[in-house]
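S1.2 Input.
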Amino acid sequence: MAFRKHLAGTSSVPVLALALVGGMYPSIAAAQDTQPATTVQEEEGQPVDEADEENVIIVSGFREALATAVAQKRNSDLILESVTAEDIGKLPDDSIGESIARLPGVTSQRLNGRANVIAIRGLGPDFSQTLLNGREQTSTGDNRAVEFDQYPSEVVNQVLVYKSPSASLVGQGLVGTIDVRTIRPLETGEQIFAIGAKGSYADLGALNAGSKEFGYRANATYVDQFADDTLGIALSAAYTDEPYQLQEFNAWGYAGNGEPGSPFVIGGSKSFVTSTQLTRIGVNGTLQWQASPTLMVTLDGFYSNFDDDQSKRGIELPLAFGTTFDPNTATVVDGPFGGFAEQGTFENVEGVVRNDVFQREADLYSGGLNLDYEGDDGWSAFFDFGFSRTDRNELSIESYSGTGYNAGVGATDTIQFFSDTEGTSFQPTLDYSDPNQIVLTDPLGWGGSRVQAGYYNNRIIEDELFQYRLGVAKELEGFISKANFGLSYTDRSKSLTPDEFFVMPSGGATELAIPSSALLRPTDLGYLGLGPIVSYDVRDLIADGTLILEANDSNDIPAKAYGITEKLMTAYLQFDVQQDLGAGELTGNFGVQAVNTEQNSTGIAFVDLDGDGGQERVDLSLGDNYWDILPSANLSLRFDSGWVFRLAASRQIQRPQLDDLRVAIGYGLVETNNGQSPTGQYPFIDGSGGNPVLRPYRANAVDFNVEKYFAGGAGVVAAQLFYKDLVSYIDGDVQVFDYSAFPLPAGNPPATTIGLLRSEVNTGGGNFYGAELSATVPFDAFVSGLQGFGATGGVGYTKTEIENAQGNVDQIPGYSKWVANGTLYYDLNGFSARGSVRYRSEFLADFTGFGGNITRRLARAETIVDAQIGYEFQPGSALEGLSIYVQGQNLTNQPFVSQFDVPEPRAVIDYQEYGRRFLAGFTYKF
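S1.3 Output.
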């Protein structure tokens, strides 16, 4: 068959060697090792003579990366998308997240302007899994989803996004599995030493005192082979020191109900100017040893130190929720849900000036050892060990100041407001930058009898994972070309230790002047009309004793702590198939994966055990053990004409968020008949907290693809249809729960240990389905004069019909009905230019609140525009090996906006403006 010819043949278009750990997934690797793109003659089954080969144009840079991705897609037996580095240490984008977000059916959510979490097929990061070189990873976030800014883009060689699983793909997600891969030195096959650097500029400027508008990144990579190419080494290092700026409007919510006399009106505002300084060092190393013609040994190591330091300065204004509002003095207009107050005046407003700090520090360690045996008798085997650990500290410090201690004491403000689709702006009468008027205190008496001038919350998280895999395979003759069997054992543990304090003025004072030595340049909130505010670093005031810390000894604090362990034993049996069928060839695999899960959570509850009204500490431990059987099949019918038809079917799971499995449960007795007892008996136990017996999301899935390859294999048009029957969903609700493992609270003994638990629960699901259309088109395939020009991109549509625990159609976190992206490029003779656009329709976005709590809000549709231009000096030039480039990100200054959960466009909750970013840099390969 011609298809097998171009798989085995030598291409005239060299592409970057790819980093696949074939021993981990031997059956996948056999089908997925990216082959060189073919010439038109090869595609049509014609011979290529030596004269033709002399005139072949060598493709490099962005076009080479696209050709690699097209070949990867074509040759794989799984449905996948991929992105490959254009050169050593040079992904097509500034970040991994940005590059992945340009793949068909994939998009991202921005955090502080960075694309750090990924949504596949319109669903958020809770529904996908991320691997590093095929191994599961811990994360710098609270959830399982990897935040991609923990990995420097300069150390990444390739990213694969599997949209369909196979039995041998361990660690798969519900909507997709993302595999980040680094360099394999023996597959690179040449000595390389490359360095690179870039500078960045944020056009919003240095918004907070002490922040920066300029940053930089630097990286170096070394690859070499020794001992007759039997020993290879690859070392990469990258350092980042970059600022990110944010101007934000935030509303507490909206008062009123839209009825006459009660229009919707802003209830309160807590708006900040945020300056983030991201510093990160990432180091990656790989050692490969061809110990014998049949045995390859690969040793990997990765380390990242991540420091995300934020200064957040702004004003908190209690408006309709804290003052009297007269709608007769306001301009009220009709909206979709009744009246909406567009402008008016609030009187007696007591503003709270905020000088907050959020600092997240994380150390990520990852590595592994792989032994891959490929016998000459058809037998192959592998052993793989993987390790990942993240040590993370999240420090949040709130600091309050105002015109006086307690509500109704200090000077008040009269503020005019103007609300529109971009949020609310104000006209105050007070000067919030006057240190003679603004003092350190508890302006609204939030601390009660305690003078609470702020709050200190340090979250200490440890996340550790060990993984062991073993597999064996045998090539066979006939329809079944190979049999694969494997075992995997994963042991993961995650713990949280809270450390919380009240921030108070020293010496028992109710208010203190801000020391003149601590005063910084005022922060300008002019974009909201609020003008400048007094600014300082609360850490300096704590260090010099102006503010002191008093431990929060509430039982609520230790009750937040948890420890979670998860032990997974996975076994799989997979058969690869290859069979000529008339003018085509059938390839693929089918098999089954069996997963045993043993999960356990430890924590603390406080319960009145002796009836004295006090709360006694109770140490808790609870978990579950269950099996999942996951059959799968991936079949591809391939034709010499370039057509490929794919059908995939599988049972898929996605494990719940780890912190949802916590056993920290508060509970007590309900003595009186309230009609809620699940057994009809009283007293009964009622509680709330985590759910240590929570089961995964589960779905039955079918995918169908039609793909047409052309232009010598460099171009493709693909249509994808998918359907998932979600048989188990996770949602917040009240469930029947057995408290037999818990100490009983004091009082009349409950009639039964069967009670209620308010937590995340497994419910019936529903279905979601959709379609994707993608293409990579080199224009010279149709018009010879357009050599070097081309386009790539795709559009995806997803429809969800998921019912929540109450039986209503639910908005799935991260879900967008439409996602689309496209890149128009020119790449020839060293010169390259491209412009990219990506779009996603409205979605339910995750926001991290104080103390790490996740809040979900409806985010508006957004369109992001980026561009890049560069030049690579050609062979023979005095500067051969040097490439230079300039990038622009978010060129239209697209904001990130969320709104109130009624379709009133003026009821804005968040309006975050990140500004534009510009980068200029170079790479030099010796």
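S1.4 Remarks. The helical segments are 2-8, 26-32, 40-43, 50-54, 61-75, 96-100, 185-188, 538-543.
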